[in-house]
Every structure is written in C-alpha cells, then in structure tokens.
Amino acid sequence: VFPESSLRVTGVDFLKSQNTRQHHTDGYNIQSLVVRRGQPFQVQVSLSRELRAADKLTLRFGIGENPMKNRGSLLSLKPEREDFNGWKISVVERKGKECLLSVSSSPNAPVGKYNLHVKTGSNIYKPENGVIYLLFNPWCEDDVVYMANDAEKEEYVLNDTGCIYVGSAYSIYDRPWNFGQFEEFVLDACMYLLDKSKLSLAERRDPAHVSRAMSALVNANDDSGVLLGNWSGNYVSGTSPMDWIGSVTILQKYYKTKKPVRYGQCWVFAGVLNTVMRCLGVPCRCVSTFDAAHDTEENLRVDVYLNDKGEKLNSLSFDSVWNFHVWNDAWMKRTDIPDGFSGWQAIDSTPQEQSQGRFQCGPCPVKAVREGDVYLPYDAKFVYAEVNADRVYWVVKKVNGKDKYFKVGTETQAIGKNISTKAVGQNRRVDITQEYKYPEGSKEERMSMQRAYSFLRPSGLVPRSGYASTMQTIGANTQPLVPKEPVTKTGLHLEITNTEPLHPGNPLEMAITVKISAPGNWTVDLIGSCQLQYYTGNVQANLGTIKETINLEGPSEMQIPLKIAPDAYMKTLSSVEDEVLILVTAVAEVKETNDKLTKETSMRFQYPPITVQMPETATLYNDFNCAFIFKNKLNVTLENCKLLVEGLGIFKMTTFELGDIMPGRIMKSEIVCTPTRLGEKKIVAKLISNQIKGISTEKGIFITE
Asked: pLDDT band for position 691 (50/70/90)?
C-alpha cells in the first residue's frame, strides 16, 4: 500500500452551535464545546480521502494529566463497536471525505475537561482547541441529577440570576444576586476547583462527592479555596461582604489570582456555591433559614444569657442563633445510602464546623432532617440541630457577689423558621419549611424528634457557662419530653412590634404587648431592652431599656411603648461595616404565680427605594439607556455613597462613587447598555453608604433579535 493512501484527518468540526443548543449549554461564554453526559453530540471529521471498510478510525477522549486506558481516564472509541465504559460512537453519514459521527457519553461519566484526539492507523490528529467540557445532565433520565420538570430545570440549572432571602423572621427581604454561571472564566474556575479537589475519577461521576468537595472549596479554610470568611466588622483589606452583588467578580478574580478572595459571609458563600453547582450541571437553590442555631454541639439547645436589665450578653455564649443563615440544596439521587433519601440535599460552604477534618458540609438529605434520620451521611446531625434546637433564656444575677443563673423561658418552636427559597420562574419567596420539618405539634414531628434524639443524646438542662439554680437532667435512656410551647398558669403572652417605620435618623418606636388570658387581678414585672446586633446574633450596642410593673385585669392586654432617640444609635449605625438589626428582648414575670416568659424579636431598618428607568424590551447589540434614581427621604445625610450595578449579558459590574447625599436630594446615575444575549435579562443595583449597608433592586428587560 502506498503511503499517500494512508488515511489522515485534516480537520474536526465540533458543530458547536448545533450541539450546545441541544445540550442546553449555548449560554456558556467559552470557546470550547460544552456538552452534558449521557446525551449524544456530533462531530464532523474531515479526511484526506474517503473512508473505506478496512480503515481504522478511533476517537480518543482523555481526561486529566496523563490519560491511561487501564485507569479509565483514556477512552478509545471505534464506530459501531460495543461501548467502552458506557460510551459509544456511530457514523451518522459519510459524504465524500467528510464523516459525521455521533458520540454518546455514559450517563455516569466523570465530569470534567476531556481532550479529543483522532487516530487513523498510526496517525494521530490533535485538533486545535480540542477540549470538550463534560457536565452533569439533569435532562437525561439515566443521570442521577435527572430532574423531570422543565420549569424547575429552567430555574435551578439555567437561571443565572436570582435572589437570596435575608433579614429576620419578623422582616424577611430579598437580596438580588447574579449567579452568572455562564460568564467568562466561571466554568474554567469550576474546572480548576474540580482539579484542586483531588477527587478520583470514580468520585467525579457522583454529584454527592462533587458537591461535598465544592462545599469545602468555596471557603478558603484548609485548602485556599474561593472565599475568605470574615465576621469581624473590619474589611479594610478586602471587599466588605455587603458590597458583592453576585458571584461573577468573585470567581473571575479567584481564577485569575488562584488566591482566596476577601471577604464572604453566609449569603456570599451560598451565592457562589449555587453558581458552581449550576455551572457543573447540578440543579441547585439557595435556602435561607431564619433563627438558625449554630454551634449547639449536638445538644439541640442554644442558651441565651441576659443581664438583669434584659440585655443580651455576648460574653457568656458558646452557641448562637443567627437571624438568618443561607445554605444550598442540590438535587440528586443518592446511590450511597438507603432508598428514600433522594431529591434535595443540603450543602453548606460557610465555614462553621469541621466535618471529617475539613470545613465542608453535606450533602445531607433534606428528607433525613425531616424524618430524624440524623445518622445518614453527611452532617445530618449538624443540619438537624440548625433547624430544630430549643432556645433557653437565663438571667444572670449577682447573689452574694457570685453569678447565679435563673431560667426565664424556653422556646421550643423558635428555631428554624420560614425556611425560604426563590419560587420557580417567579420573583417571589416560597416557604419550604415543610420539606425540612413536620408541622409543629404533629404526630410525625413527635416521632421524627424521638428518632433524632435517640441518635443525638442531648445533654441535660444545665447552662453551659455555669450552674443553674435549677438542675434538671435528662437521663440517657429516658425519652425526651415532647416539647410544647411553655404553658403558663395565667396564659401569659408577649408580642413585640414596631409602631412606626424604622427609618435611620428617626426615633425607633416600638411596643411590647403583654397579654394575660386567665381571669383575675395580676401584677406583671416587665423588663425590656433594645440593642443593635449583627445577623450572627453578636450584640454591637445597647440602646436603651425599660422597667415597668403593670396591673392587668385578666383576660386583657396592655401595650408598653419602647422609644429610642436617633442619637442613641446613629453613631453605631455609621461606624459599623455590616448591616445591623434592631433586637428587642422582653422578660415578663407574673408576681402571683411566678410565671416567667421571655420573647425576642429582630427587626431591620427600612430604607427608601432605588428606581430603575429603562425600556421594557431592547434588541440585540443595540444600545439603550438605563438610569438609576434614588431620593434620600431620610432625615440624615448618607455619607460615602456608592452605587454598584451589574447586568449579565448587558454590561459588566460598574461602580459609581456618589459622595454624600443630603436629606431630600435626588441622585441620578446613567449607563449605556449593549445587550449581547437574547431573552429575559436582569439589571441589579445596590446602594451602599456609611449609614446604610445595602438598598438593592433589580429590573428585568427582554432582549429580542
């Protein structure tokens, strides 16, 4: 045979636009081909001559540094042959020197970057840009991340914008967040994290291993991952956690420098982990829990210590209740644990506690939390405690010069409230508490709790920082008492509300309502305090207290006002770097019966809005104007104002320095936008100043051809 008749490849066309449309990967801003596993894609091979029956043509897909067949990292595929590791190729058509091939990867293939080489006889052709990115495939029924509902896939895999719920149970609000999983370098950053994770090829097949590894790598602890957590209130050497409006800048910066980006707090970790999971093809959502328990050491109890004025003390607490905590749920079929625990799995990249020696958390089946099956991997005990702990209040008094602890209340239904995520296809909050917990007081809840307690062995009721005046312990063998709201002899009940909008610069006007349902004459001692605290429960300032003795003719109620002058809090508000909440705590005691009750409520300040002015629709590559308007309706000057704006597929993250905005002044910033992508796009804006740590808004625009 003459050498010129030996078959050579002259080119490979990856048919990118056709393949990416079919694979729902046409959004990725990247040169290479991105496809999903378990679904065929086509490549067109150009040859030096027509293909003959005797010719040998092989496609070789290699993954990793040094691909080898015996390790499964090199796949050598011949047309119409039996499959290799679940992969196969077939000839679709031959036209002269062109050969159209269809490649089907295995629905449990390792995800990552593959290099394609084409071998003909002894010739090997290496196409330029011959890299193929292979992702998880929620559209493929045989993939463990399969999700049947199209609207859910649209939201949890393809939506690159969204919002994260924050604030407090009393005042939940949404923070818009740009996930931006399709933006430039984001997929490469995720691939870099996969390589950095040192997961084996077998582990890369399984979203449980991948999501656990990503929960570890999104925080910088123990592996110089993406984000450095910081709750100190001092962010001079980086970006304050409040100043981010999306994951894109963070992941691009990390990919460029390969060093942790400063700084994150829980919603930033959750926003970035959500981006990473969606980018890799695993359906994922951000989940916010209000009044989440932290560091309970699995005793399912958080102790809160108050002084005799009813002010919360930071110094004594080992554990805490965060006003909110954000983690993620990733969707998958779990093949490593018994049936019945597939579906949503909680993963958390906020560094709180080590799990198997690293700061990682999950995947923990949400159903295991609900059923009390807290022995299941991974970290189910920890997640269970976050949403199911009890809160116990102690007042610390000096008796003969020594600290004594008096128990003034137990709340059994206060932790893990209003578990929230963004609705599918709509900008509204949906409450998913029932996915994590059975209804309070139901038979199922009781059984789930007894199940969980049998694995957790909570310790007895002793305050952690010393000895209480009342010692009660639950023996290891006795069933825990079924928690109920504390029943008092008088039906004592407390409510805390704000009576006027809580605008910075105005007096804070709040009220404590004391209710008694039992007939008779009752004397109630009430102490109340108002403090500023971070969302982690850390008190920043004491603003004021009240102490009253009231007489009630039951059944009746009385409203006691609690008013704080602006001077008492404005200085703290302007000097802290984080958003603070207003914490009101009330302790009531009925003299005649010794009934005691404690109630606390956290509220957020209310701010004037930002308005966005722009057309409702625009056409591809045609400029339009977008204006951001803000009127300072507060009685206080906002100092050092910055406006952060970003529109994925429209314009890159931009910052306007606005200086000081006096009361009554109107500020207007404009930007010229050039849409580069079709469909529904969003513009996100956030205003930050010394006094206000974040007024956010978002507005949608539809881009047509």
From this structure: very high
Alpha-carbon span 177 to 653, nearest angstrom: 12
Domain assignment present for residue 468? The answer is no
597 and 614 both lie in a single domain:
no
Q: Are residues 361 and 430 both part of a single domain? A: yes
The one catalytic residue in 223, 348, 373, 379 is 348
| CATH number of the domain to which 124 belongs | 2.60.40.10
Task: For residues 295 and 418, state if they share a domain.
Answer: yes
Q: Collect all residues with Cβ–Cβ distance below 8 Å to 497 and sequence separation of at least 6.
A: 510, 511, 513, 601
The C-alpha angle 430, 434, 439, rounded to 5 degrees, equals: 130
Is position 266 annotated as part of the catalytic site? yes
Q: In terms of domains, do 329 and 432 share one?
A: yes
Q: Please tell me whether 445 is known to bind a ligand.
A: yes
Let me know if residue 256 belongs to a domain.
yes
Asked if residue 466 has pLDDT above 70, the reply is: no
Active-site pick, 99, 140, 266, 284: 266
Written in H, E and C, the secondary structure of 488-511 is: CCCCCEEEEEECCCCCCCCCEEEE
Q: Show Cβ contacts of residue 627 under 8 Å, excluding neighbours closer than 6 positions.
A: 612, 613, 614, 668, 669, 670
Given the residues 325, 329, 626, 641, select the one marked as catalytic. 325
Domain boundary among 85, 107, 135: 135
Domain identity same for 521 and 407: no
Of the residues 575, 604, 633, the one at which a domain ends: 604
Give the total residue count for the chain: 705
Q: Does 435 fall in a domain?
A: yes
In a domain, 497, yes or no: yes
- Known binding residue 509? Answer is no
Annotated binding residue 440: yes
pLDDT per residue over 397-435, tens digit each?
A: 999 999 999 999 988 888 999 999 999 999 999 999 999
Q: Which residue has the higher pLDDT, 483 or 435?
A: 435
Query: With 60 as the cut, is the pLDDT of residue 243 above it?
Result: yes
Tell me which residue range forms the domain holding 504.
492-604
Neighbours of 437 (CB within 10 A): 22
Same domain for 227 and 369, yes or no, is yes
Mean pLDDT of 596-602: 96
- Tell me, yes or no, whether 364 and 249 share the same domain: yes
The CA–CA distances, whole Å, from 654 to 432, 617, 672, 684, 701 equal 35, 22, 11, 11, 18
Number of domains in the chain: 4
Annotated active-site residue 329? The verdict is no
pTM here is 0.95
pLDDT in tens, 156-197: 999 999 999 999 999 999 999 999 999 999 999 999 999 999
What is the average per-residue pLDDT within 572-577?
Answer: 94
* Catalytic residue list contains 348: yes
Instruction: Encode pLDDT of 274-285 as tens digits.
Output: 999 999 999 999
378/342 same-domain check: yes
- 388 annotated ligand binder: yes
For residue 315, the domain's CATH number is 3.90.260.10
Q: For residue 354, what pLDDT band results from cuts at 50, 70 and 90?
A: confident
**CA atoms of 302 and 294, how far apart (whole Å):** 8
Distance between CA atoms of 579 and 315, rounded to whole angstroms?
21
pLDDT of residue 458: 55
